[in-house]
UniProtKB/TrEMBL annotation:
<dbReference type="Pfam" id="PF00646">
    <property type="entry name" value="F-box"/>
</dbReference>
<protein>
    <submittedName>
        <fullName>(rape) hypothetical protein</fullName>
    </submittedName>
</protein>
<dbReference type="InterPro" id="IPR036047">
    <property type="entry name" value="F-box-like_dom_sf"/>
</dbReference>
<dbReference type="InterPro" id="IPR055411">
    <property type="entry name" value="LRR_FXL15/At3g58940/PEG3-like"/>
</dbReference>
<dbReference type="InterPro" id="IPR006566">
    <property type="entry name" value="FBD"/>
</dbReference>
<dbReference type="Pfam" id="PF24758">
    <property type="entry name" value="LRR_At5g56370"/>
</dbReference>
<dbReference type="InterPro" id="IPR001810">
    <property type="entry name" value="F-box_dom"/>
</dbReference>
<feature type="domain" description="FBD">
    <location>
        <begin position="375"/>
        <end position="453"/>
    </location>
</feature>
<dbReference type="InterPro" id="IPR053781">
    <property type="entry name" value="F-box_AtFBL13-like"/>
</dbReference>
<dbReference type="InterPro" id="IPR055294">
    <property type="entry name" value="FBL60-like"/>
</dbReference>
<dbReference type="InterPro" id="IPR032675">
    <property type="entry name" value="LRR_dom_sf"/>
</dbReference>
Length: 462
């Protein structure tokens, strides 16, 4: 007998809980001691993409689909009323919604379910979405509820009982904004909320309000009329996608870190584009609401959007670390105002120095010669600067010399030449050596005393 098989049944069941239900069922052929364990596994992960291996044409075979549903029926019958902690059901071949209702009801009826994860897609000839049972919102043991695409949730006020729910995920599901507000009000323990491409019915006004929420991740794939946030306990905020036309309320006074990435916004290039100027004129309200954040990450498009409201940019008095992700098709127009409004900034991280050169980049970069060169940098108290994606080009070297010249409080510059996308020029020892010599020579000839460290991959160049 193998060493694993002699372990106590409780340990073996715990091991099986990390497998899909199909894989757990297959272990019954290993030895007699495994034969009946599936009946007591506290975690069921049912995924028809695992059962119905994606071979060509297999998903269309009615007998295979029926076999899958019969398998689920047998597993649930085998388990009877044994305790169940986690139930994950992912089906993209549903033809019998009543049967699926029975599976979900079976899991909830046992009591004790703390983790419910559902993705159910039905054929278009049956209906557009699977109607989720209201029972999923009347479970006083649920701690985590994840609802993915293909499911329509209809909430009934007064019938929501989720006192222990801490994590809620709504992924590509249609939701009525009014019902969503009712749902959040009924979740006194909610700490983590993920809203990924939710299809807001009406696409008008959406409010995310929760006094207990600590982590919010939200992606919008279209423009809302208004978007409000009332989350006074929020610590972590990640927002990406389209900007709303207005942000009437943004209450996030305790933010520790935030990432704003308007990744799907079109480029703002036309100098007199009044339509875009009006469309993004209220974005400053979002940034005003997160002005107390300690660590901020901005994606390339966000900088261009910010350039539309630089005059209204708030002062980030608590900001200690700022991370900027650059792109060769996006400009740094908002950088001068942004750096000027971070009076206590200590660390600046730039992921990629290459950006679109415009006459509005100001004195932050060295791309265009101008008077009052480097003025906004001299007023910035940054002590540590990190540059990622360094390639060792002359343009990059010129920009770093510019930073060394004008960041007067700078103590350390760390340069990273990652090789994730293939070898860099700095992989050549001689090139790396020349780059280091240039920095060392600069230190000798200038009055600054900045420690410059160059990392190529995981190797520190000396």
């Amino acid at each position: 007998m193998d060493r694993v098989s002699i372990l106590p049944d409780e340990v073996l069941c715990h091991i099986l809980s990390f497998l899909t239900t199909k894989e757990a069922a297959l272990t019954s052929i290993l030895a007699k001691s495994w034969r009946n364990l599936l009946a007591f596994v506290p975690s069921l992960t049912i995924d028809d993409s695992v059962f119905l291996h994606p071979e060509e044409g297999k998903l269309e075979r009615e007998d295979i689909i029926q076999s899958f549903m019969a398998f689920v029926d047998r597993v649930l019958a085998l388990q009877g009323n044994s305790p169940l902690n986690k139930f994950s059901l992912k089906c993209v071949t549903v033809v019998d919604t009543d049967r699926v209702d029975g599976w979900v009801s079976n899991a909830l009826a046992r009591g004790g379910v703390s983790d419910l994860d559902l993705k159910i897609i039905i054929p278009s000839d049956i209906g557009e979405f699977y109607k989720l049972s209201p029972k999923c919102f009347e479970c006083n043991t649920l701690v985590s509820l994840k609802i993915h695409r293909g499911i329509d949730i209809s909430l009934v006020a007064g019938r929501i009982l989720l006192p222990l729910l801490k994590t809620l995920v709504l992924d590509s599901v249609p939701v009525c904004p009014n019902e969503f507000e009712i749902l959040l009000q009924a979740l006194p323990s909610l700490e983590e909320l993920l809203l990924d491409c939710v299809m807001w019915k009406g696409m008008e006004d959406v409010t995310v309000s929760s006094p207990s929420l600590k982590t919010l991740t939200m992606t919008l794939d279209y423009t809302l009329k208004t978007l409000s946030f009332d989350a006074p306990s929020l610590l972590h905020f990640n927002y990406s996608g389209y900007a709303a036309l207005d942000y009437p309320v943004v209450n996030m006074g305790n933010l520790v870190d935030a990432q704003i990435g308007d990744s799907q916004l079109k480029q703002l290039r036309e100098p007199d584009n009044d339509e875009d100027a009006h469309r993004y004129s209220k974005v400053w309200k979002l940034f005003h609401g997160i002005r107390y954040v300690g660590n901020l990450t901005l994606l390339p498009d966000t900088l261009e959007v910010l350039s539309m409201c630089s005059e209204s940019m708030p002062v980030f008095n608590n900001l200690k670390s700022l991370t900027i992700r650059s792109d060769e098709d996006r400009g740094w127009q908002a950088m001068p105002a942004l750096l000027s409004n971070c009076p206590h900034l200590e660390a600046l991280v730039i992921k990629g120095l290459v950006h679109r050169v415009t006459n509005k980049c100001g004195d932050v970069c060295d791309c265009i010669s101008r008077e009052n060169k480097g003025l906004s940098l001299t007023l910035c108290p940054v002590k540590v600067m990190k540059i990622h994606g360094f390639q060792g080009t002359k343009k990059e070297m010129a920009m770093m010399k510019h930073f060394l010249d004008y960041f007067l409080s700078l103590k350390e510059m760390r340069i990273y030449a990652e090789e994730n996308n293939g070898p860099t020029r700095l992989g050549n020892h001689e090139v790396c050596k020349r780059v280091l010599e240039m920095f060392q020579l600069y230190n000798k000839l200038s009055s600054c005393n900045v420690k410059v460290k160059l990392m190529v991959g995981d190797v520190l160049c000396r």
